[in-house]
């Protein structure tokens, strides 16, 4: 568990500019991330739904945070922290959804594959230069005709 020490705060009066800047930061953060809108229990897994209609199914036995939970406790789980965490007020539990997903090796392998695929389709100056250099050498070799 990571311990974060509280820093002493310097009292500054809140201004309209500070409030507007904070609202803009919050809107930018919300627009750049996927927020969960619901959580429910299905058999021995948590079904987390996101605002775009997608979802993820996470088996609770892989997460030690849920040790000691009974069926009623799972029903009391809520989505909190602007859709980024699962919360249980009675157990004083707040668990990051992104952290739960990153703890799943299979989901991380899939995410890595998706990112690699997306990055491979993007062009860059280095890719363009490499393509030009290969073109000067005659380009990609022709495929052998299987009929011959």
Care to describe what's here?
- With 148 residues, this protein is an alpha+beta fold.
- Among the domains are: 34-103, NE0471 N-terminal domain-like, CATH 3.30.2020.40; 105-137.
- It contains 5 helices and 6 strands.
- It has helices at residues 16-32, 71-75, 97-102, 105-121, 125-136, and strands spanning 36-42, 45-50, 55-59, 78-80, 85-88, 93-96.
- The strands form 2 sheets. It has a 3-stranded antiparallel β-sheet. A 3-stranded antiparallel β-sheet has the order 4-5-6.
- Strand 1 (36-42) and strand 2 form a beta hairpin.
- The longest helix is centred in the first third of the chain and has 17 residues, at 16-32.
- The chain is flat and about 75 Å long.
- It starts with 15 loop residues before the first helix and ends in a 12-residue tail after the last helix.
- The model has no long low-confidence stretch (mean pLDDT 87).
List keywords for this structure.
single chain, 3-stranded antiparallel beta sheet, alpha+beta, 148 residues, 39% helix, NE0471 N-terminal domain-like
